[in-house]
Amino acid sequence: MGSLLHTPVQAQLRVEVSGVGSSQIPVAIAAFADEILAPQQITSIIKDDLNRSGYFKIIDADAVITETASVNFDEWRKRGAEALVVGSVQRLADGRFDVRYRLLDTVKSVSLSGFSVATPPTNTRLTAHKIADDIYEKLTGVPGAFATRIAYVTKAGNEYRLEVADADGDGIKVALRSNEPIISPAWSADGTKVAYVSFEAKKPVVWVQNLVTGERRIVANFKGNNSAPAWSPDGSRLAVALSRDGLTQIYTVNADGSGLQKLTSSSGIDTEPQFSADGQSVYFLSDRGGSPQIYRINASGGEAKRVTFNGSYNITPRISPDGRTLAYISRRDNKFQLYVLDLATGQEQRLSDTTKDESPSFSPNGRYIMYATESGRRGALAVVSVDGKVKQKLTVQAGDIREPTWGPFMK
Known about the structure:
- The protein is 9% helix and 48% strand.
- The chain is mainly beta.
- Helix 1 crosses helix 3.
- It is globular, with a radius of gyration of 23 Å.
């Protein structure tokens, strides 16, 4: 039933980008010496990553420059570049590639960063993403998320697939295939496991699957519905929504399925739990006040406090990695759209201009939100920067794509 993560899929996610960041940093990227030796062109992946982010203006260097070459900083300043990326690739005797890179500040005429990594051929793409991450962090002050992964569900014909891909939609692998729906995937904080709901038993059951070994186990299969798993930041527990006692309520359970504890007891339906960034509280959806709104409760129980007050229908809470911003889907004027709420100021902002949005998920650096929407009557994924300025759309050639979840930084 659970096929391992070795199955590559030919269908590639297509990424379209619109909009740019409020200010763009001009960066020149020189071709790495001998990069033709590597299975993938390092510099083209770096350019694609930085372009996609919306925060950089790429200046084509039209030159091959190694990391040891002396550079005329004045010339690059005249070409409008504030930074210059240089490097080289060398094939090692054991078949690996030595990828060397340097980031130069052309304004101050200094080296900002650089590293060398010996990588197997299969990891050259990952190495390029890591270089792009380093450039992003050194020039913006925020860690890059190009070397992270995403998981989502595709439906093609009668088959549902839980797929894992690089953040740019490349390198798709299938974690699970099923003729029954798969919903609500959620990454563990260490990036080795995904929890999800599978209907293979003809009812919703919560599973956890190890993405390294493919091993999977049931963590919630009680009477009624078992749904909406969410990991605690330390990976020791899951919050789930269970209807075992009648109305759906929030529970926590250990990652191995033991130690079930009931968190909410309301006269309404409580679902879609989400741990806060520090693990001290749980955000969740409830209609206890008459309409669907988002509430927060201490992770050990107690009294729940309402969080959303604008609009009469707010669902699917997701909290940013720094704990300051709440993303959710709000229905207003019959449109389901992505909103964010600054938890300190109460300031709300609509981020999407599509009308059938669902399943938001923050990037691990907190700069972007991925969500599911519709494109030409089919499920598609979209990414928007938290300031709403940069938008991306990810589509797959055949079939629906939904239920995205953005994985953590890889250790």
